[in-house]
Design goal:
Helix content is 43%, strand content 32%.
């Protein structure tokens, strides 16, 4: 009788244990460390001495938006001038001009093309009005000037060749110098032909040639003016300014109207973390509670602290002045309830993975 009672008690205990393990559920909370980011950020940075890059980043979608790279030739004098109203901590609107890049080579080329265009228009006008002696004088001066340009450029190419052979200048710079010499030689031939023509009479073909030159100069000016316009650094977003010194990052504009927390979680929790879940986080040194909501879960697995890890992105519900980009915060994610058996199994998995 006593033995039978023990069996019944044992069965009841087993049933009670099974009931507790599989039917009683407890809340699952996952704790981790996250970092605060603005959702969007526009950056001006110097990647190397002759290159400036602007990039728009969206930390929520992890997409790189509009990116521009400004590469300048070696020997060019480049000046990045930030507008006077751009001060650290100030707010700027989308479309505000943040600064301008000035290139000495670009300005020099623009002046040269404008001078050539003015000269070509004057020559065409003289041809059409039939001012014979003035045409001859101008054509003679053009020949002299064109030959002087060739002489000077030949000296430059000669020096560039020696430097190129010693790997002191790039092949691109050497080729640009050679191409300019070829252009100047062609201008000598054109000037000679013009002088010959004006002394014997203006040919229709020469007038058409001058018109073609004018179109070429106009097209080149249009291209360079567009390039100069692109040297205006215009903010694509509104946000607060962060200026840096002695750093590759020159200026940062962050849209603080929406901020997110990016936090890692262990791979075995991938079924527990879901979009829409609430995240409780604490700021360093403060006991105030702040909340965020998971809006995106990365689909890639990365190695973090020698463990397989995934990342989630949570949007902060109510922004507070005490929350700043770059903060490291302790996060607590509220997941669905699980039974005790599953909870114990997770604990063993966690211990074994460590």
């Amino acid at each position: 009788m006593q033995k039978r009672r023990k069996i019944i008690v044992s069965i009841l205990l087993i049933c009670l244990i099974v009931l507790c393990l599989f039917f009683i559920k407890i809340p699952l909370h996952i704790t981790t460390i996250g970092r605060v980011y603005p959702q969007t950020e526009w950056k001006i940075e110097k990647s190397n001495p002759d290159e400036v890059i602007t990039s728009l980043n969206n930390y929520l979608t992890t997409e790189a938006g509009d990116m521009k790279s400004f590469i300048f030739n070696r020997g060019d004098v480049v000046n990045l001038k930030i507008n006077a109203f751009i001060k650290h901590g100030e707010f700027v609107e989308s479309g505000d001009t943040i600064g301008v890049i000035h290139s000495a080579n670009l300005e020099e080329r623009l002046v040269e093309l404008k001078g050539n265009l003015t000269k070509a228009n004057a020559t065409l006008k003289s041809f059409k009005t039939g001012e014979k002696q003035s045409l001859i004088n101008e054509a003679t001066q053009n020949v002299i000037q064109a030959k002087l340009q060739v002489t000077e450029q030949e000296k430059i190419v000669s020096r560039m060749k020696k430097l190129f052979e010693k790997n002191l200048v790039s092949q691109e710079e050497y080729e640009i110098a050679e191409n300019r010499l070829a252009l100047y030689k062609a201008e000598v031939k054109i000037a000679d032909a013009q002088l010959n023509t004006v002394t014997t009479g203006v040919k229709r073909e020469l007038i058409e040639q001058i018109k073609a030159e004018i179109k070429f100069y106009q097209k080149q000016l249009s291209i360079l003016n567009d390039k100069k316009m692109n040297y205006n650094l215009i903010s694509p977003i509104e946000g607060n300014i962060n200026r840096f010194f002695n750093s590759d990052t020159l200026l940062l504009i962050q849209d603080l109207s929406t901020m997110i927390i990016i936090f890692p979680f262990k791979l075995y929790h991938y079924q527990d973390i879901k979009i829409g879940q609430k995240v409780l986080f604490f700021l360093p040194g403060l006991s105030l509670k702040h909340y965020a909501k998971i809006v995106r879960i990365d689909s890639t697995v990365k190695l973090y602290n020698n463990q397989q890890t995934m990342y989630a992105y949570a949007e902060i519900n109510k922004l507070n002045t005490a929350i700043y980009p770059g903060m490291i915060v302790k996060c607590k994610i509220f997941c669905s309830n699980i039974n005790i058996f599953e909870y114990i199994k997770r604990m063993f998995i966690s211990v074994n993975i460590r």
